Amino acid sequence: MAFRVFMLSILLLFSLVAISSASESDGADSSTEFVLTLDQSNFSEIVSKHDFIVVEFYAPWCGHCKKLAPEYEKAASVLSSHDPPIALAKVDANDELNRELASNYEVKGFPTLKILRDGGKTVEDYKGPRDAEGIVAYLKKQSGPASVEIRSAEDATNFIGDNRVVIVGIFPEFSGEEFINFTALAEKLRSDYEFGHTLDAKLLPRGELSVTKPTIRLFKPFDELFVDFQDFHVDALGKFVEESSMPTVTVYNKDPSNHPYVIKFFNSPNAKAMLFMNFSDENDPYKTKYHEVAKEYKGKGISFLLGDIDASQGAFQFFGLKEDQVPLIVIQSNDGQKYLKPNLELDHIASWIKEFKDGNVLPFVKSEPIPATNNEPVKIVVADTLQEMVFNSEKNVLLEFYAPWCGHCKNLAPILDEVAVSFENDTDVVIAKLDATANDIPQDTFEVKGIGIKYRRNLHLRRNFDFAGEGKLCHQKKSSDSPTQDFCNFPAAYSPKAVS
Ligand SMILES: *[C@@H]1O[C@H](CO)[C@@H](O)[C@H](O)[C@H]1NC(C)=O
Ligand SMILES: *[C@@H]1O[C@H](CO)[C@@H](O)[C@H](O)[C@H]1NC(C)=O
Ligand SMILES: *[C@@H]1O[C@H](CO)[C@@H](O)[C@H](O)[C@H]1NC(C)=O
Ligand SMILES: *[C@@H]1O[C@H](CO)[C@@H](O)[C@H](O)[C@H]1NC(C)=O
């Protein structure tokens, strides 16, 4: 879970998310409602009557939901006359009564749209656009067959195109276990990929023309352009599609057509190697070499990305990289560690990746520079001084993890200052702060989920505590935004007696 959140934040930093932007329009006429309103009382009953129904879980306060509403209604009105009709429904997931329903459908954000088939027996995420026209087109396709038949060369050209991943099953006849397994796969992955089937390989633009055995041919706009596969076990097929539809090296630059692959890259369970460099410079040898290495590690638990520095500011900030370090490789491992090779030379690529794979590279920890002076009442801690100032200091340390942009933290600053001044003569106590956006916090130390204050008691007891004092507030800054920690009782509330 934490890992998912972490990956999501990388995606945000790469600023790929939030592509949806439906046009603002208020005129939703309340008298005509094509979207069905469901709740806990009638959800199952209504859903069970539909072969295909889309459900939006929304919250009344959610801005994206409000934007979607008129588009969703418009789409519902168009689709009500589709043959067979496609039903669109909504559930107020904010309503206490519907919370359980929403949690059954793993609703974590708003709006969440699900496609329910077969009376609700199968559930898929809706991954289509958020404007009326787009919703209609996407749902028409989703409610049709999962795989379309290719009957002519023209069908094939239109269907396969040259800029997307398409999977075509080639069969001597449309029956048999292979065909059934292919159809099951197409059904399962239909919201992620396009599937087609044909009796005649000669219609297809690439690959062997005479195919006698059932064969899956995956077309892709990169690397070898197509791959054949003949193991029809459903799991093997799924794995083949996942692996073959990823480029050997995912390119990250400002070209939006690469972004779906970047998202897949970050969702992959592999360790993630990222080579960042300036694409404007002449550096083709790097690209070639990196590609060679990536090929060598195919199927060995590492995915590869090549990023242009001009598109990767967010990533640089997130990983704590500097522009004068390019070309560089950073590897993000599955346990959240980072490994860095700055100022990479061409012949380091293969050897350094091998060293990493063999476990011979030490993790890299992002840190601000150690401050030259540190004599304000509130001391500055950075990742590189965390051990010395917090864990090995033989003092009790109250440490604030803050973000420069955080309002609560700004409100807290003068209070923390005052507390620090009042303890200035207590040699056992240190009041300190650490910018949690600019410094890595080792995972096995403090569990920093958000911005907050931790207390490390080194005297008598080497342990960490969340600092969330209760009781009266010394400082009457009682706006809704103000921190409520009780500094009056600090450190008494955390004395050896109080916690043991
Ligand atoms: C489901 O029940 C709610 C009231 O509990 C009602 O407002 C809504 O119209 C019902 N939906 C349908 C489709 O009958
Ligand atoms: C179809 O898939 C099932 C489940 O994976 C498998 O047992 C069966 O052998 C497959 N059939 C063929 C022809 O591969
Ligand atoms: C990349 O290289 C170009 C041309 O050499 C240069 O103008 C640009 O500033 C460089 N970008 C970065 C982020 O260093
Ligand atoms: C700390 O000690 C200095 C020097 O003795 C004194 O001036 C100052 O008031 C003391 N501070 C506090 C908070 O007691």
TrEMBL record:
Organism: Nepenthes gracilis (Slender pitcher plant)
Family (UniProt): Belongs to the protein disulfide isomerase family.
Disulfide-bonded cysteines: C62-C65, C406-C409
Localization: Endoplasmic reticulum lumen
Signal peptide segment: 1-22
Lineage: Eukaryota, Viridiplantae, Streptophyta, Embryophyta, Tracheophyta
UniProt name for this protein: Protein disulfide-isomerase
Membrane-spanning segments: none
InterPro entries: PDI_thioredoxin-like_dom, Prot_disulphide_isomerase, Thioredoxin-like_sf, Thioredoxin_CS, Thioredoxin_domain
The keyword Coiled coil belongs to this UniProt entry's keyword annotation: no
Keyword Isomerase: yes
Domain Thioredoxin: 11-144, 356-496
Catalytic reaction(s) noted: Catalyzes the rearrangement of -S-S- bonds in proteins
